[in-house]
Amino acid sequence: MAWVLKMDEVIESGLVHDFDASLSGIGQELGAGAYSMSDVLALPIFKQEDSSLPLDDETKNPPFQYVMCAATSPAVKLHDETLTYLNQGQSYEIRMLDNRKMGEMPEITGKLVKSIIRVVFHDRRLQYTEHQQLEGWKWNRPGDRLLDLDIPMSVGIIDTRTNPSQLNAVEFLWDPAKRTSAFIQVHCISTEFTPRKHGGEKGVPFRIQVDTFKQNENGEYTDHLHSASCQIKVFKPKGADRKQKTDREKMEKRTAHEKEKYQPSYDSTILTECSPWPDTPTAYANNSPSAAPTFTSPQQSTCSIPDSNSSSPNHQGDGVSQTSSEQLQPSATTQETQQWLLKNRFSSYTRLFSNFSGADLLKLTKEDLVQICGAADGIRLYNSLKSRSVRPRLTIYVCQEQPGSSPLQGRQAAGSGAENDSGTAYVYHAIYLEEMVASEVARKLALVFNIPFHQINQVYRQGPTGIHILVSDQMVQNFQDESCFLFSTVKVENSGGIHIILK
Question: Where are the beta strands (DSSP E) in 46-152?
Fold first, then answer.
């Protein structure tokens, strides 16, 4: 019996030894030094992901990817969004890449899709006043666009379209199966939308957003597929290169521990997925550029700044009447109220306000709208309904001097409403200045009196004893409101330019 018990102990100890030996190799290849989960989570692909990630079988790659060929800033902290510096007017490539897996989304295989590229404000405060900001920019830069496509350099884009009333957007068709690159040019700089105080102000960031759509059953490009965007700042030519160099030098001076808190600078900028732009695209639905979506903010119906081609009282009168007619009136019917909501980019609330007339909507307070629509949309809707006209900072009256008349005659005519010797009345035009700078005076004179702006070399003011004083920004800032001026033009010798002399 004792022998049997001893044999059982020997067998049991042998089994335990064999079991321990069989486990001894597990984990040697995957030691703590060879495989660290914290190292994996530190990879860039996980940095900007949401904490509530879906399971592996639920993850789905976006159908497209957009890559802008411009380096990101090295002075961005790890968990912040990337920031890319661009030069004003320089062409930058955005590669449109097909990211679908085999057999994914077969409905667009062999078909064209439409993409809309926009430059919009990143700052929420500026988003609320976007239309006023863009109208002010257009007023100061007549004939220019905030965003353009460099068509000769672009590859694979078809049927490009821009709308004169949408200066910050371009759109085009493209085939995902073919190589496609859109070269964009941003003409607005970040400091143009910064309140000027003492110089050296910090520029505001913009966003480049790309929205892509497919055709619906009626052949209209309205079915949303994908949206992505990135944060940018725009500098004067070569300013982006200097800013990138400055950021790089600052990072080199930091300690190794401090550098770990910042992202590395990548050669290209990958646009990250975002919510689609609220507008419903209709430009290709009717094959008419005039039917393109509205890219401006919902406050477009309340701004009274006249168009860039109208600075005289006659033109401005038309602009004001048009603006007031676009405002929501208390007498508006429920159908007209619905149209106003759609036109001003509140399409998601048309069903909610389906039984509201203009008077009903105008009676709602700011608190009511915030409670109904949320903080962001509620404030936007309140501003659209209640905002008032923006007064110009300075108004001056200008008349072009008639040949053969003296300045004294002109001023007497201006005061009495008389006519000159030839029987022609002296007509003064109102010039409304939003920015009190000399360049705007020249630009407004060119618009009102049909003078090519590029031909104006200098603007002078005639001083005592007939001397000519250069009109500077400081002089304009000291103009009295509603001052009257006669002006004449003098051709510049050996060039096609002219000087304007205010008297």
Answer: 64-68, 83-87, 91-98, 113-121, 147-149
